[in-house]
Design brief:
349 residues, Muramoyl-pentapeptide Carboxypeptidase, domain 2, four-stranded antiparallel sheet, two-stranded parallel ribbon, 48% helix, binds zinc ion
């Protein structure tokens, strides 16, 4: 009897072991669970595309996987890069995703300063080295000022770069103390201004049409605008600047007059406007100025050298100098308060 019982016991144990083994064999354990992921994490992982799923199988357990997968700005195509960058630099999930989503993930060092620059609204990635250098030389400047100044090229001295003006940008070209026009550049479509609108000199045709619309709108309000200086050729500018230098010296002349090739007047897109009875100096006290400073953008013009931005534009405040950039851009500049230097760097260049 004992022998029979012992035999039965052995059969029973063998059978149990066999059944357990068989069950394990037919239902293999989930590989993500085996890696240490929780059921919740696995459910999320299994919603990913095949490439990401196999990537997660090849790599170690990622303890922050849920944070990535649940973030609102999570982009599936960037998952691999989030993980790589996160592991390398110990950045926060938020910073890691921001950097990768903006494609700023191609540099060697991500210290706090670098990341702070990247979060600035007008950050230009290819200027990073310049931001870092400039901020090392100006330790007391705020991050946003470093961005503004470098975007305006202030890390270089005026008249040291001579970037070629990109004429393909048409009404959005930039001409300033860094961007130079050649001595033989003459704009297409110059037309002569009729006597009632200003001095009978010339202006680019679209700019002239827009100016006439503005002139008429002002006229309806009983206001009189008058262009006293529109297009100037290279040689006119050269003569003008040389006279100012003879009169006031080079340092002073540079604050209010452009050297030849660097003047917006050579573009045909800019003009100085006053009233028939005011001068450049008194224009800012007229009703016409009060009107034009809030309506110019409706016709595509910007007050090009604003008050308080002299260090960015390189010119003293010029209430009389307007530049055509088109209605959309002029409106954006009017609303944001950016200088054209800043706007150009971020949106046009
Ligand atoms: Zn001017």
């Amino acid at each position: 009897m004992k022998k029979v019982l012992g035999l039965l016991c052995i059969i029973f144990i063998t059978l149990t072991v066999f059944l357990v083994w068989k069950q394990n064999k037919s239902e293999p354990k989930n590989p993500y669970l085996e890696k240490g992921y929780t059921e919740e994490e696995v459910r999320k992982i299994e919603t990913l595309n095949e490439a990401n799923q196999s990537y997660l199988l090849e790599t170690d357990y990622q303890s922050n996987i849920l944070e990535y997968l649940s973030a609102t700005d999570f982009k599936e195509e960037n998952l691999k890069e989030y993980i790589r960058l996160g592991l390398l630099y110990g950045l926060s999930i938020e910073d890691t995703m921001y950097i990768v989503n903006h494609q700023y993930n191609d540099i060697e060092t991500y210290d706090a300063k670098t990341v702070a620059f990247m979060h600035e609204p007008y950050y230009i990635h290819e200027y990073l080295e310049r931001y870092l250098n400039y901020s090392n030389n100006h330790q007391d400047f705020e991050t946003s000022s470093v961005i503004t100044n470098v975007n305006s090229n202030l890390d270089y001295a005026f008249y040291t770069q001579d970037y070629t003006v990109d004429l393909d940008k048409r009404y959005l070209i930039l001409v300033n103390k860094y961007y130079k026009l050649s001595s033989d550049y003459v704009p297409d479509n110059l037309v002569t201004i009729e006597a009632k609108y200003g001095k009978s000199l010339s202006l680019e045709s679209t700019v002239y049409e827009q100016y006439k619309l503005m002139w008429n709108a002002a006229k309806q309000e009983g206001l009189n605008l008058y262009i006293c200086s529109p297009y100037r050729s290279y040689s006119t500018q050269l003569g003008l600047y040389n006279n100012y230098v003879a009169q006031d010296g080079k340092v002073a002349a540079d604050t209010y007059s452009a050297r030849a090739g660097y003047s917006e007047h050579q573009t045909g897109l800019a003009f100085d406007v006053i009233t028939p009875t005011s001068t450049l100096a008194t224009f800012q006290y007229t009703k016409e100025f009060e009107w034009i400073k809030v309506h110019a953008h409706e016709y595509g013009f910007i007050l090009r050298y604003p008050e308080g931005k002299e260090y960015l534009t390189g010119y003293v405040y010029e209430p009389w100098h307007y530049r055509y950039v088109g209605v959309d851009v002029a409106t954006k500049i009017y609303e944001t308060g950016l200088t054209y230097e800043e706007y150009y760097a971020y949106y046009v260049r």
